[in-house]
Amino acid sequence: MEPGTYQEEHEVPLEDLAPNTAYFVTGFVTDPADNTFTSPVIEFTTEAGAAVDDLVNVAALSRGSTVSAVSSNFGGGANDSTWGANNAFDDQMATEWSSNGDGDDAYIEVDLGTSTSFAVVGFRSRKMVDGTSIIEKFQLVLDDTTTLGPFDSPDPDVRYVFELDGVTSARTIRLEALETSGGNAGIKELQLFAPN
């Protein structure tokens, strides 16, 4: 906390929590004079998970996918940097890919390694405190030949789940921003779920 910036309320997102699980949380803050303050313990239970949580995300890096193209990474960093493209495929909402000011020209492409089937798309945009960097509408280009969408995603605090019209297969999937709130547009996660 900088001098003059003390707050009684502060939003701290708790990402990647397990569904239907009890949590106990305590907040700590230290001011410039090295005084530490502790909040009371807060207890809550998360809601039941979404239906896609039981499906396989074939776009995850842990399954062998790789980032094959990206418009840019914030600060010119590599794909594995703090704001790099790999964060869009790590199955973690607490990390995110940020472009370097690409706005509506932001894009990212994942190579699944082989033609792979999927039937559901999961998507969540990143955001900045000032309201910029949100991808509000996007499309997917499969193997440079087929376009899916556009998909609307106005709220960056929501993971949108889009069921496709049947199962589709592709090796490369390119997400292209169509409408953003400008700035360092990027995403927390792009997920491609395989059918049961």
Structural commentary:
This protein is an all-beta fold. It folds into two domains: 1-49, no CATH class; 52-193, Jelly Rolls. The chain has strands spanning 22-25, 28-30, 36-38, 42-45, 66-70, 97-98, 107-125, 135-142, 146-152, 160-180, 186-193. The strands form three sheets. Strands 5, 6, 7, 8, 9, 10 and 11 form a seven-stranded antiparallel sheet that branches. A hairpin with a 3-residue loop joins β8 and β9 (146-152). The protein is globular. The termini are far apart. The model has no long low-confidence stretch (mean pLDDT 90).
Q: Sheet bearing the most strands, described?
A: 7 strands, antiparallel
Secondary-structure class: mainly beta
Total domain units? 2
What's the CATH architecture of the largest domain?
Answer: Sandwich
Strand content: 35-45%
CATH fold node name of the largest domain: Jelly Rolls
CATH superfamily of the largest domain, called what? Galactose-binding domain-like
**Cα end-to-end separation:** 48 Å
Low-confidence stretches: none
Indicate the mean pLDDT: 90
Count, helices: 0
- H/E series: EEEEEEEEEEE
- The helix content is under 10%
Q: Radius of gyration from the CA trace?
A: 18 Å
